[in-house]
């Protein structure tokens, strides 16, 4: 039995309870934003081994295609973290060995790293036979993936480490906790007396997905039948989600609570907003059956802003970027010549670069541009949008306008008419943008282009940063952080920033103008103010962003992790991480009770 329901059982497992905060605002007010600040000298870890637990990943040839898209705006966050972390550790601790654990690692694993980094990294696959299990695609064998993760933790101890534990372990997701707990159990059995320092860098939390799915289902039912009893809908949909074998929400969210409230685990966030939007959710803060809350671990939570690849995104003379910059210049000039009126071809541009997602608010930018004549007179509007085939120099928005004119929106949504495999939310956003920009007031004043690889994205920004008074931005309706604007600014393109993003405080400090993303007039005004004070803002942002290297970020990681924890003992017998079985009946029931309690606290359910 994993947990005892009595208070004494939980107390013996987790140690004395710490007093919970009444409000987390005090923590946010006093949180240490340590960018550029060092409180202590970093403890030397050269010659030791660090372990990154990324068990759900599949790193190989397919990953390298994604790795061609530098920056988390263009690739999966967990793969970006693995690569960038390795680059930073190489710079800070060049003799440290870094073991990267994923479900599957291909022979081309080392190809995702820059030259020299392969000297310090090694791969460890949890799949001996090379197979890959989609953790959200297992219906009939729900525990196949998680059993593999747990068993791998045991094998790693037996095959590689035996009694020699790594110096530090980094976790990203709750399945990392499964691997970590199984490793600890094996080390206990083997008689190991000390355990590594552990850090959690959470990329996403399960309750955010759980509550989004629940609210979407409830709202859909209410729209279809307004007379239906809302409580009945909520109860039915919660039961469905709790039993959904694709997500295993009860086990997942309980494991997350154990991780972020554990007084021996350091938690690293990108911004205070991540605390607001993820860690402060009810399942992690609600007093529940004597379990600790995230408030009990507040001293072990630190905001450390992530870095950017300053070699790729910058105005340096990096020879590896020359061909990408030259290629992007040719594509840009060709696209402008096709879509922009010749009399406007040399005007500066407002740049929107990223994936097709309504939350990115490209539609808000388009509407702000349409509604402001002064902005239209001074700049052209440029979108950079890629389709799945990575075609070069296609204006997907104009192509969609043509399809809508020929076939109508509904037929465009069918399989036979879809443009370059755009589907779902991306297709809807493309249709939305096509309708907005099909406005005679901005004809000949805007364009959209596509590029085949991520380094070409960087090349375009480097080119525009050198040769055009271009302005970019983070326009999002909501974003927990967002690295893309820092990458853009370091290329010499000053940015504006939505005040609903985690990056707003940093960028405003560097001179960026902020705006309400749902107020188009404010967005237009922020762009005009940036154009009016272009040189000064551009210099301030370059000066700030040039310090945001991953080497600096990793240095801060090491500094923080080596600070004493609330419970600083690393004696393995006192370490409050228990073996965690995803299919344990008591675990599932406790997770279900926790989620029911959380849902009851939701004000709009």
TrEMBL record:
One GO MF term: glycosyltransferase activity
SUPFAM superfamilies reported for this sequence: UDP-Glycosyltransferase/glycogen phosphorylase
InterPro entries in the record: Glyco_trans_1
Gene Ontology biological process terms from the UniProt entry: carbohydrate derivative metabolic process
Residue ranges constituting the Glycosyl transferase family domain according to the UniProt record: 475-534
Name of this protein: Glycosyl transferase family 1 domain-containing protein
């Amino acid at each position: 039995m994993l947990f005892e329901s009595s208070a004494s059982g939980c107390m013996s497992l987790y140690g004395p309870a710490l007093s919970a905060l009444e409000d987390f605002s005090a923590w946010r007010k006093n949180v240490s934003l340590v960018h550029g600040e060092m409180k202590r000298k970093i403890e030397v870890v050269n010659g030791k081994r660090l372990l990154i637990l990324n068990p759900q990943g599949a790193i190989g040839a397919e990953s390298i295609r994604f790795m061609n898209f530098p920056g988390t705006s263009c690739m999966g966050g967990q793969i970006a973290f693995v690569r960038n972390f390795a680059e930073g550790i190489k710079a800070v601790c060049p003799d440290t060995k870094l073991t990267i654990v994923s479900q599957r690692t291909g022979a081309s694993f080392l190809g995702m790293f820059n030259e020299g980094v392969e000297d310090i990294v090694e791969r460890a696959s949890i799949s001996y036979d090379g197979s890959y299990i989609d953790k959200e695609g297992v219906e009939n064998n729900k525990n196949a993936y998680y059993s593999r993760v747990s068993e791998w933790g045991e094998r790693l101890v037996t095959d590689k480490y035996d009694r020699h534990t790594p110096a530090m372990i980094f976790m990203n997701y709750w399945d990392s906790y499964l691997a970590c707990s199984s490793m600890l159990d094996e080390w206990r059995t083997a008689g190991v007396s000390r355990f590594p320092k552990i850090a959690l860098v959470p990329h996403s939390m399960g309750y955010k997905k759980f509550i989004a799915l629940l609210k979407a289902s409830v709202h859909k039912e209410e729209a279809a039948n307004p007379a239906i009893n809302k409580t009945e809908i909520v109860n039915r949909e919660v039961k469905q989600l709790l039993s959904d074998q694709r997500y295993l929400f009860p086990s997942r969210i309980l494991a997350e609570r154990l991780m972020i409230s554990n007084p021996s685990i350091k938690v690293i966030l990108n911004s205070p907003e991540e605390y607001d939007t993820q860690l402060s959710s009810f399942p992690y803060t609600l007093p529940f059956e004597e379990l600790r809350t995230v408030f009990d671990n507040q001293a072990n939570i630190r905001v450390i802003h992530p870095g950017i690849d300053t070699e790729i995104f910058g105005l340096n003379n990096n020879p590896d970027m020359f061909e990408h910059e030259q290629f992007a210049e040719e594509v840009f000039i060709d696209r402008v010549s096709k879509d922009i009126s010749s009399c406007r071809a040399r005007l500066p541009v407002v740049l929107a670069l990223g994936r097709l997602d309504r939350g990115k608010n490209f539609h808000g930018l388009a509407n702000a541009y349409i509604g402001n004549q002064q902005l239209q007179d001074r700049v052209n509007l440029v979108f950079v949008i890629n389709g799945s085939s990575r075609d070069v120099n296609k204006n997907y928005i104009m192509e969609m306008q043509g399809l809508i004119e020929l076939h109508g929106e509904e037929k465009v949504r069918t399989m036979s008419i879809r443009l370059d495999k755009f589907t779902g939310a991306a297709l809807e956003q493309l249709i939305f943008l096509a309708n907005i920009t099909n406005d005679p007031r901005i004809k000949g004043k805007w364009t959209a282009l596509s590029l085949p690889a991520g380094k070409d994205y960087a090349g375009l920004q480097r080119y525009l940063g050198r040769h055009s008074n271009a302005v970019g931005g983070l326009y999002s309706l909501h974003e927990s952080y967002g690295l893309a604007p820092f990458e853009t600014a370091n290329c010499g393109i000053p940015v504006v920033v939505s005040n609903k993003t985690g990056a707003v405080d940093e960028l405003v400090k560097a001179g960026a103008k902020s705006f309400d993303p749902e107020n188009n007039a404010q967005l237009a005004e922020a762009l005009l103010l940036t154009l009016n004070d272009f040189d000064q803002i551009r210099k301030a942002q370059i000066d700030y962003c040039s310090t945001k290297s991953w080497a600096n970020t990793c240095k801060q990681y090491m500094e923080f992790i080596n600070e004493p924890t609330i419970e600083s003992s690393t004696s393995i017998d006192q370490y409050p991480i228990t073996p965690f079985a995803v299919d344990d009946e008591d675990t599932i029931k406790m997770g279900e009770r926790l989620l029911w309690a959380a849902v009851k606290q939701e004000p709009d359910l």
